[in-house]
Design a protein that fits this description.
The chain has about 140 residues and is mainly α. Helices cover about 35% and strands about 5% of the residues. The protein has a single domain, classed as 2-Layer Sandwich (Glycoprotein, Type 4 Pilin). It has a 3-stranded antiparallel β-sheet with strand order 1-2-3, covered by helices on one side. It is elongated, with a radius of gyration of 28 Å. The termini are far apart.
């Protein structure tokens, strides 16, 4: 006896597919809009870590061996190569081998160095201009 199998096919309607695509589009849009906020904070953390921690030990070691921090004119480059007229006391390089001083902060601006410092009168000032790329504003990230 022949058996009839009733099979019903259920498929997604065009409306259901469009709703799913719309929801995926909205989620993707929200993710892209917040992408800058997620990584913007890490740029600040990188700059803060550089000015407060990464350069502290090399600069203190330089001061102990040379008697003073590098001058503003010598800059951070004095940690890599001996400044003119100071080669007899220079025992560097003061950074671990293969380490290069980052020339620019996370926003593409050069790090600023001044010795003697304005904020640290007996030491040095090392700072990034921050996200607005303007010196002397509230978003500057410094070692003070």
């Amino acid at each position: 006896m022949p058996q009839t199998i009733s099979s019903q096919r259920r498929a997604f309607t065009l409306v259901e597919i469009l709703v799913v695509i719309t929801i995926i589009g909205l989620l993707a849009g929200l993710a892209i809009a917040n992408f800058g906020k997620l990584f913007g904070g890490s740029q600040i953390d990188v700059a803060r870590l550089f000015v407060n921690q990464s350069m502290k030990t090399p600069l203190v070691t330089y001061r102990l061996q040379m008697g003073a921090y590098p001058s503003t004119e010598d800059g951070l480059q004095a940690l890599i190569t001996a400044p003119a007229g100071k080669t007899d006391r220079w025992r560097g390089p003061y950074l671990t081998e293969g380490t290069k001083i980052p020339i620019n902060d996370p926003w593409g601006e050069p790090y600023q160095y001044r010795c003697p410092g304005v904020h640290n009168k007996d030491g040095y000032d090392l700072w990034s201009k921050g996200p607005d790329r303007a010196d002397g504003t509230d978003d500057d990230i410094g070692n003070w």
